[in-house]
Amino acid sequence: METHQRHSRLPLETCLQIYNKMSIANHSFQHKLDAFGRLLTIMDELRAQCPWDQKQTFLSLRNLTIEETYELADALLKEDLSEIKEEIGDLMLHMVFYAKIASEKNAWDIADALDAICEKLINRHPHIYGETKVQNEEDVKKNWEQLKLKEGKKSVLAGVPDALPAMIKAYRMQEKTKQVGFEWENKEQVWEKVVEEIYEMHETITENMPQEKKEEEFGDVLFALINYARFQNIDPETALERVNQKFKSRFEYIEKNAARDLMDMSLEEMDALWNEAKKTEKSISKTN
User: Fold this and answer.
1) Global pTM?
2) Which of 12, 125, 147, 165 has its CA 20 to 30 A from that of 211?
């Protein structure tokens, strides 16, 4: 009775929002199956009747899928749950689309793809579906990489796509080689490597070495910094993107508040607006 009275004092709109969130988060298993089945049916109808959908191929959809993936990545960075839901739906459509095209080629269909990932998950989690014992997350990761090798993978790095952005690729390769013992002992050693690589890069500049050598040493610096970030539990891709967003926001503030064309302003004038943008960020941060 006491609980009922407490909640009854909430505004009706707030109560409805709470109820809607609870109902959305607690769809029945059958509802989820029905929703997925509905998507499959719509895909069949679009492929059969829509001129645009009929023309699509694996390659024509590829760039669109990459775009949708980046849109999801943006939503994840903002932790916008509504936007994340929308982007997951868009990507789900793409996965179903690829499966539909494959089925038309009599290669495989969505059931084959789902059965394959289910079998992979069961095989890669012997601590859940078998007798293997693990102590922590690191044991799980090591088992995962060892099982991949037993399945026929020729290298622990075989699963890292060539097309991955370079920073993410470096991070993933470092994570994977760690699972077979190719790892620094502590973060102090990694930082020493960062300092060493920065010195070597600087040397290429002071000694006016060829551009290729400068690029190589700069790459070594980035690789070492990514490794150090990993030891500090920092996602370097996310960290850099947050800085990108911060830079974008501050520069757009300059554009919006400039008294005249930027080309006619001095660097000092733009710096003053830049500092104003920083103060605005701090005031908003305090308010939140």
Assistant:
1) 0.67
2) 165
